Amino acid sequence: MSLTTQVAPPLALAPEHHTLREWRLLFTRLPTPTREALPGRYRAELLGPAWFQGLALRLLGVLGMRGWWGKDIAPGGREGANLVNRVGGIWRAVPLVIREGTSRVDGRTSLQVEYTPEVGRQWRPWVDELRWLEGRTLLAMTHLELPVLRHLTVPFLLHREPA
User: Theoretical Cys-Cys bridge with 157: which of 22, 45, 72, 102, CB 3.0 to 4.6 Å?
Assistant: First the structure.
């Protein structure tokens, strides 16, 4: 089911203003969103060097989310879906759940985007932690919940679209 009939612009690529380490440090200073404030449709923006952004987009395609556009968080802030940009508009793709958990970045309680067994094994280890950057933008830190990789976090932004 398409959420819009327009074809949206591709995922925005952020300028190289901060290093991955600087984004991680900034994340530790930001407030965790409440579930009530979270619902909405968010356009994603990858961060980091251009080569890294290109690699991330390729990886998303390999994992079955070619054309990743962002996330849609349902009322109540407990579930939603990843969005992809395809012919005919923006479509709901991989479903997600939002749980409270302990941040891998700073040990604080945070809201985390996770995936249920129904979505496939390739998405089960991915976790996105969310913090408010400003106004309508979330800074997310994603990591793989795997022994060697769980402390390697990758930042991206989620910009809430107007209702």
Answer: 45
CA distances from 155 to 3, 42, 65, 139, 145 (A): 26, 15, 18, 7, 15
The pLDDT tens digits for 6-23 are: 434 444 444 446 787 888
CA–CA dist 129, 27 (Å, integer)? 10
114 part of a folded domain: yes
Whether residue 50 is contained in a domain is answered as yes
Residue 153 vs residues 29, 35, 46, 103: alpha-carbon distances, Å: 16, 23, 13, 11
Beta bridge partners of 85: 90
- Is 1 domain-assigned? no
The total number of structural domains in the chain stands at 1
User: How confident is the model over 82-106, as pLDDT tens digits?
Assistant: 999 988 899 999 999 999 999 999 9
